[in-house]
Structure formats: C-alpha cells, structure tokens
C-alpha cells in the first residue's frame, strides 16, 4: 500500500461536510422532476422564480442585440462595480427601495458576485471570529453557512412571536440578549422576511434602529425580496427610508453610520444564476473594507455590461415589477386557496411578500423528520424544513410557489397532502 | 459631537489597508494615458493582453448570435461549473496542457470565478492558519494578498539563481526549508513563471515532484501562461504531463494525490474581466472541499454559457493559440530589440513565455524606490516593481508588452529610458 496523500487542512476538511439543509437540494438537482422523468423530485425548497422568463428573455435579447460584444469588458474593470451600474442602482434604490426625493450617491454602492458573498464579507468586516449577529428566527437556512463556515461569524436568534396569524418581533428578548452577550456586533434584519414572508412594520423597524443606537451595533438589512410584495394593502420601504426621512438630525446622522442594505438580482428579478448583488452603505469603514476585498467577489464584466443596461431602463423596471407582483399574487392566491381546502392537514401564515408560503402540518404525532422523509421519499417533493430555519416550533415548512407552473405546483401539493393524510 | 459609529472588526480594518503594490495600479486606473489624456499614466504594470481583441470580438459575436439569451442560465446551476464547460476543459487540457493521449475525466475539474479565488481557496484548503506554501522568488506580487489576507496562509520563498542569463531552481535551499520549517504544506509552482517568464525544465519539475513526495506536501501548479510560449525552441508541458507519463506506477499513483493545476481565461485568452478559472486535480479531498465552497466563487452562468461554447471549438482554439503566440513573439522581439539598443541603462532576462519582460536598471546608485518614482511621476509610466515580487536583488521591474499597441509601448519605454538617463 502507498503512503497516504498529503493531508488537507482542518478547515478544508470542515468545508467538505455540506450543511444538512443542502443535501436534499442536491438530491433534487441530480434527479429533477419533469414530464419525461416523473419519478424525479419536485423542488419546492429553493427560492427561484421562473414566472417572468418571457420578460427577461425579451429584455436580455434586446440589450444583447445592441451590445453583442464589447471589448472593454475583456480586461479588468472597476473592482466593486462599474460606475454605470452604480448609477443605475442609485436611481433604482431612490425610487423603488428608499422611496425618497433626493438622489443617492453612486459611491455608496458596491457590486459583488452574489448575495451570499456580500453577507459573508460584511459579516467578516463587522465581526471578528466568534462574534455574533443577532436576528429573528426562523431564518433562511443558508445564513449559518454564509457567515460561519469560512469566517466564524456566529448567529444568535430571537424567536418571532406568532399571534393572530402574524409574526411579531420580541423586543424584550432582543434587549436581554444585547445586554447579556457582549459579543453581538450587529442586528441582521431580513425584510421582507425569509421564510415567513413578513413585512416589518415601521414601528418594528424603528424599534430595531433604537436598539442598534442604544447598544451601538450595526444593522444589516437584507432586502432581496423588496419588490415581491403580495399583500396589496402593504408597501415595502427600505430601512434606509427611515434613515433619510428621520426628522431628528442627530439620530439621522448616527443611523447613517450603522445601517447597510443588501439587494440582489437573484430573487425579485429571477436571476440567481447571474451572481449580481449590491451593498448600499454610508459607513465609510465598511465601504473601504469591502471595496478592498471586492477583487475576490468580482462580477463578470460581460454580465455587468448586460445588467447595467438592464437596470438603466426605468420604464422596463416599472413594468417588470408590476407584472412580477401580479404573477406572484396570482400564484400565491391559488396556493392559499388550495391550502384553505386542505385545512384539515395544513395551516399556514399568510405572507406579506416573497415567493413562498410558510406552513405547518397538523399531523404532528410523528417526528417532523419522518414527515419530511415521507413527503420526499414517497411524494417525491422537496420542501425547505423549518428545523433548518432554526424554528423553535416543529413541523414547519417553506414552499416556493414561483419556481414552476401551477400545474406542477398543484401536482406537488396533492402529493404532499396525500403523504400527510396517510 | 456624536458618538462614533459602531466599530468594524480587526480583520475588516486590516482589509482596508490595500497592499502597497496595488496603489500605483489604482493611480493608473484613475488617470489612464490616452491620446486625449497625454498626462495620464501608461500602465505597463498589469498583465493584460489586448493583442487578440479582433479574434475575441468575432468569436464572441458569433457565439452570441447563436445564443442571444438562454433562460436556463437564469437559475442556479451546477456549483463548480457546468458539465459542458468541464468537458470542454477536459479536451483542452488533454490536448494543450497535459499533451497526453488518453481522455481526462471532467469530474476532476472545478470552475471558479477567477484565478485569485482558486488560489485563495486551495491555499485555505491545504494550509491551516499560519502554515506555509513554499515557492521560488521573485513571485507575482498579488500572491501574498490572495493567500494571506483572508486565510492567513503564509509564503516562504527560495530565490531563483540567475546564471548565464537564465533563472535556475535552488533545490538545496528548497530542501533545507522543507526540513527546517515543519509548517510547509505545499510547493507553489508558477510555470510559465511570473515575473521572469521562465519555463521550468523537465529536470526542475521532476526535482520539485521528488521533494513533494519526499516531504509529503502538495504541489500547486499555476499554469495560467501555458499557451503564451515566446521561445520557439521551447515547449510548455503541464506538470500533470509528467504525472500521466510516469513509468513507475507507484510514483505515478502517489503524484496523482498531490498535484493540482490552475488555469484561467484571463491571461492566455485576454479575458481578465470574465472571471473564469479552472482547477484540475485528482485529489478527492481537495475536490470535495473546493466543490463545497464553490457557492462563494460562482461564475455568472451567462458568462459560463458563452465560454463553454468558446472552449468547445477546437479549430478556433488552435487558431487563437497560434495567432496569439505570433503576436506575442512579435511584440517581445520589438521590445527586446529596443532594450538591446539601450543596454547602457537596462539589462533584461530573455523570457521563455508570458507577456512581460523582467528587466533591471543599470542605474543603481540611487534607491530603487526613487527610480520607480521618477519613472512614474515624471515619465508617467507605471512598472511592476521587483521589490513587490520579493526579489532579493534591487532595481528589477516587470513590464507587460501585450496591453497596448507598439506605438504606445515605444513611447512608454522612451520615457523610461529618459528617466534612467537623467
């Protein structure tokens, strides 16, 4: 027998162990359902929207016809994003995110190759190893991977309180943890919330800002579902809206130093594959630090050229946002009507925004992992599991309703119901 | 006065301090020379090729006409690269890198968004914090940034020995360091070498492989200039060529476990901006680990689609490689003829490969930093400095000869000469 190969590092070995939540996703990707492969898995566990492919195909084709190739994209460009992209984002953020009258400064934007890399990097920039971000639970299952895997940024969470069919922030526990844990460096807000679909109220946002000011910690606001509002009676406004419209000049100035916003082409725009995400912050230390490591998170300039044109066409953006919301609402309505018909086995929380419904099985006499397994193995349907969202309550699941046609979604849910009725 | 903003982390503060070598590069990017901006800086310090823009523009336009838009690229795809890209790379590596008869396995490839991210990640996967890679010096100025900045992988170096106009590996010192420093986990070979343009001889490569086997450490071979051979009497062969053609079956098997190859679209193909790099390794631990963190280094699928078609056209690849070499050789010949005429102020090492000439000023009575400053400030020409390549000898510079027309290159060198003759 030969001597063994040279060892790899401890961290290398640790990377090799994929997070538990990701294993069923890989299983779906290896054997996806289609009419030709009816035994494949129907994937309701990943947040992807295919609802607007027609609009995207048309728009991208139009841009490409104008810009078939541009040799300026061949060489290195501005690390952290082209000026044109930052200008487009300034206009977009002003109109659709912050919803304020004054223009934003393009220098306060950075462009990175994906939301996960922005989260990972800002986590490392704000927290030293084994320091914490504090957030509501349940929370998006990939966050521990994004923050802790390579940079040892830890998450501490406060369970949202479900009352009268809505989730509410538990400020008292936030305060207790901020008081007791001296290693918390920031609050992470995900608004609209993943997985619950909650839109935070102004009172809640101001309450979180109060806590950040009182304990002098950062607020990172992940707003990647901003344009996917489902409830027509509600409106999304970026946390930065409240910074910009703050009447108390001293409070406004202090908030400027501690709020950072994350946005992306992945969710609202259905372009996960393009790896395009944005940081907006006026904190000069965060900007300088993240500018400096932007070389490790560069967007393809080929894609940058395409997307800076995409985001510069305000007329198209408005049409897309409107159409996207109509289509999301239609799918959400169909799914909720279906779930209402099966209230004997499923209860759910009506989402304000996003592309998923967070629901709970009423069958809770058997272990939640067994319920998941029977839906996956027999029903051939993959759901994102509440236990990986660190939900303190059992038997919760997140299902994406935007990643397939209604016909397939209905098929999937009929199978889910069947598995639950067994 | 307001209370200060929340602090950022120690590592965040450290990131903010850019490496010294990068400051003159940013200065060039902010104020680049052109006919319209004659006072701007002429940048000879960054390795970019513009020599084949015509071929690239034509080829990319051709592919784009066929694939104007593909909605399959909108969603998440295979992390670590599409199968089609890996298949194209298998064929390319077999023919142009390894130069072997048998087909390669696409599963041994990973696709990452840039050579720097491959280097950073494989460094972290092979070495724990404060462990070492060992390499020849002078070495590419960005390597300490790539390896140490975020993952604390350190570099120890062995000066190449310049004798009879050629650089030679100092095996004795390699052996001494491997014996004395118990924290060396791998040897990093850059072949063709940056900045000297050296092609390693078979004897040298086998000697490095011997050391890796003896001390049971990895060999990382960065071969990003593989197709840019300048000397027609020499031929590039990947280190993996020698693994595959090894007659001793036991040695071959052991080498398989310790050699990893890095390649990229950036240098030979003039596409720095597209962020497309490749890892080839048969070490299953490295593959599994780097597959697992590929989600942080994803190539835009829009660019992936383009480039998997690009690299699938063998006829085009052969034509490009041939034309590229002809053009590089022509520029190198012109530059060396120019330098020969100015041998009173400059001496240089004839490069075997690459897109730069490594030269030394004969004016060495004043400090090398002052020489650089006068070339930069008065001559408005930026060179990459040997001191940032950790050259043990002073007054060395690397100039790229492929990033502009000869007219501009000649202008730049006339200014360099003028500054040196002062």
From TrEMBL, chains A, B:
The keyword DNA repair does not apply. The keyword Amino-acid biosynthesis does not apply. InterPro entries: Aminotransferase_I/II_large, Ethylene_sulfur-biosynth, NHTrfase_class1_PyrdxlP-BS, PyrdxlP-dep_Trfase, PyrdxlP-dep_Trfase_major, PyrdxlP-dep_Trfase_small. Keywords: Pyridoxal phosphate. GO terms for molecular function: pyridoxal phosphate binding; transaminase activity. One of its GO terms (biological process) is amino acid metabolic process. Residues 41-415 form the Aminotransferase class I/classII large domain. Signal peptide: none annotated. PANTHER family: AMINOTRANSFERASE CLASS I_CLASSII DOMAIN-CONTAINING PROTEIN, BIFUNCTIONAL ASPARTATE AMINOTRANSFERASE AND GLUTAMATE/ASPARTATE-PREPHENATE AMINOTRANSFERASE-RELATED. Belongs to the class-I pyridoxal-phosphate-dependent aminotransferase family. This is Aminotransferase class I/classII large domain-containing protein. It comes from Percolomonas cosmopolitus. The lineage of its organism: Eukaryota, Discoba, Heterolobosea, Tetramitia, Eutetramitia.
């Amino acid at each position: 027998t030969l001597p063994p190969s040279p060892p790899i590092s401890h961290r290398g070995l640790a990377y090799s162990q994929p997070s538990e939540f990701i294993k069923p996703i890989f299983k779906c990707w290896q054997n996806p359902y289609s009419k030709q492969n009816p035994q494949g898995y129907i994937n309701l566990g990943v947040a992807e929207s295919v609802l607007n492919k027609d609009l995207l195909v048309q728009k991208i084709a139009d841009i490409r016809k104008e810009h078939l190739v541009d040799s300026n994209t061949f060489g290195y460009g501005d690390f952290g994003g082209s000026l044109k992209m930052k200008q487009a984002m300034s206009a977009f953020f002003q109109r659709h995110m912050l919803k304020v009258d004054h223009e934003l400064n393009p220098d306060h934007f950075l462009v990175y190759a994906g939301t996960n890399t922005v989260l990972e990097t800002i986590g490392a920039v704000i927290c030293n190893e084994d320091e914490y971000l504090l957030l509501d639970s349940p929370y998006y299952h990939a966050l521990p991977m994004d923050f802790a895997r390579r940079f040892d940024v830890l998450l501490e969470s406060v369970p949202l309180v479900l009352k009268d069919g809505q989730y509410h922030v538990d400020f008292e526990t936030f305060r207790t943890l901020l008081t007791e844990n001296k290693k918390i460096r920031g609050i992470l807000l995900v608004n609209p919330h993943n997985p619950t679909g909650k839109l935070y109220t102004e009172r809640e946002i101001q309450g979180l800002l109060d806590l950040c000011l009182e304990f002098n910690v950062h607020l990172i606001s992940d707003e990647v579902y901003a344009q996917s509002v489902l409830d027509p009676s509600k409106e999304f406004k970026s946390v930065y809206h409240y910074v910009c419209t703050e009447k108390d000049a001293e409070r406004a100035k202090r908030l400027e130093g501690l709020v950072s916003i994350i946005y992306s082409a992945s969710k609202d725009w259905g372009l996960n594959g393009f790896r395009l995400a944005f940081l907006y912050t006026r904190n000069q230390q965060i900007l300088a630090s993240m500018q400096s490591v932007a070389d490790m998170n560069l967007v393809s300039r080929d894609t940058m050229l395409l997307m800076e044109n995409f985001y510069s066409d305000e007329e198209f953006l408005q049409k897309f946002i409107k159409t996207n919301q109509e289509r999301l609402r239609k799918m959400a309505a169909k799914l909720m009507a279906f779930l209402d018909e099966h209230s004997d086995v499923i209860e759910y929380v009506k989402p304000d925004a996003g592309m998923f419904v967070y629901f709970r099985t009423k069958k809770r006499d058997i272990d939640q992992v067994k319920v998941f397994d029977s839906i996956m193995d027999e029903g051939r349907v993959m759901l994102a599991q509440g236990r990986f969202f660190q939900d303190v309550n059992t038997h919760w699941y997140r299902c994406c309703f935007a990643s397939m046609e209604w016909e397939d979604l209905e098929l999937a849910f009929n199978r889910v119901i069947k598995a639950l009725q067994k």
